[in-house]
From TrEMBL:
This protein's name: Ring-cleaving dioxygenase
Boundaries of every VOC domain copy: 6-130, 151-268
The keyword Flavoprotein appears for this protein: no
PANTHER family documented for this protein: RING-CLEAVING DIOXYGENASE MHQE-RELATED
Pfam families: Glyoxalase
Protein's organism: Virgibacillus profundi
């Protein structure tokens, strides 16, 4: 049976690219590992943030649309994105959020306490302490490596059909059912990042796409051979996957599960160093070869981002 190792990346829609950069890079301390364009709508940026090398399981990506109306978080979407912080760093992050003027609450689920808050566009975020077998060596002047976000802890899915979504996680993606706790089902994989997915069981208002909402969640495939097997499996299960799409840093295919959430399966390779050296990731606008002839046009239309 095919089994995904877990989350590859999560992609959200926001408004202002500068506000987005300032929050995820300067407040949360993630590294901007790629500044490119939305390959399907190249008049819009596609910004990727993650750990030092942009490993799968650490990447949050954004389509910043400055004039796009606000959306509504609800069913048919990823509701909350969870990040892992090192054991013992909870107080550091509470203090940091307070210093940045960001209100937060504490929540307990599956015997874990999380810090919950929103980003400037209203995306729901939580931080949870866990042991991992990885080490994010990316730090900033204000966030040292001992407290740095390691990558995704997982995500909470707001499904319009929770049992149908659970069936896809367990019987298509190969995740293991952990247990139910109150209003949530939990599934997990064997990885230590991007590995725990919760499904909220209670009804939620219907989600509306727009700024401040998650566009899709992507699951990992080891390589292109396995990616092809995923496509064949999804076709067999009548989930109507798209054709393979070349995203330059990974290959992608998409399908919508019965609960209304857009799922992607993305390859681990080739990664973000395919067109920039590892020490220069995210420093300039990178375009795929088929857009390079329009570089001046894109640079004139895209709003500038001040990268510190």
């Amino acid at each position: 049976m095919l089994r995904t190792p877990g989350i590859h990346h999560i992609t959200a829609i926001v408004n202002d690219p500068q506000v987005n950069y300032d929050f995820y890079s300067n407040v949360l301390g993630l590294r901007l590992v790629k500044k490119t364009v939305n390959f399907d709508r190249p008049e819009v940026y596609h910004l990727y943030f993650g750990n030092k090398s942009g490993d799968p399981g650490t990447i949050i990506t954004f389509f910043p649309w400055p004039k796009l109306p606000k959306g509504r978080v609800g069913s048919g979407q990823v509701g909350t994105t969870s990040y892992v912080i090192p054991i013992g760093s909870m107080d550091f992050w509470k203090n940091r959020l307070q210093q940045e003027g960001i209100s937060f609450t504490l929540d307990s689920r599956f015997n874990e306490t999380s810090i919950q808050f929103q980003d400037p566009d209203g995306l729901q975020i939580e931080l949870v302490e866990r042991e991992t077998d990885t080490d994010n060596s990316w730090g900033t002047n204000e966030i040292d490596k001992e407290h740095a976000i390691q990558g995704f802890g997982g995500a909470t899915l707001y499904s319009a059909q929770p049992n149908e979504t659970a069936d896809v996680l367990e019987n298509i993606l190969g995740m293991e059912f952990v247990r139910q706790a109150g209003d949530y089902l939990r599934y997990q994989t064997q990885e230590s990042l991007g590995n725990r997915i919760d499904i909220k069981l209670s009804p939620s208002v219907r989600g509306l796409a727009g700024a401040g909402t998650i566009h899709h969640i992507a699951w990992r495939a080891k390589n292109e051979e396995e990616h092809q097997r995923w496509q064949e499996l999804l076709e067999t299960k009548k989930l109507q996957p798209t054709e393979m799409k070349d995203r330059n840093y990974f290959k992608a295919l998409y399908f919508q599960e019965a609960g209304g959430i857009l799922f992607e399966i993305a390859t681990d390779a080739p990664g973000f160093a395919v067109d920039e050296t590892p020490d220069k990731l995210g420093e300039k606008l990178m375009l795929p070869s088929w857009f390079e002839s329009k570089r001046k046009e894109f640079e004139a239309k895209l709003p500038p981002i001040k990268v510190q």
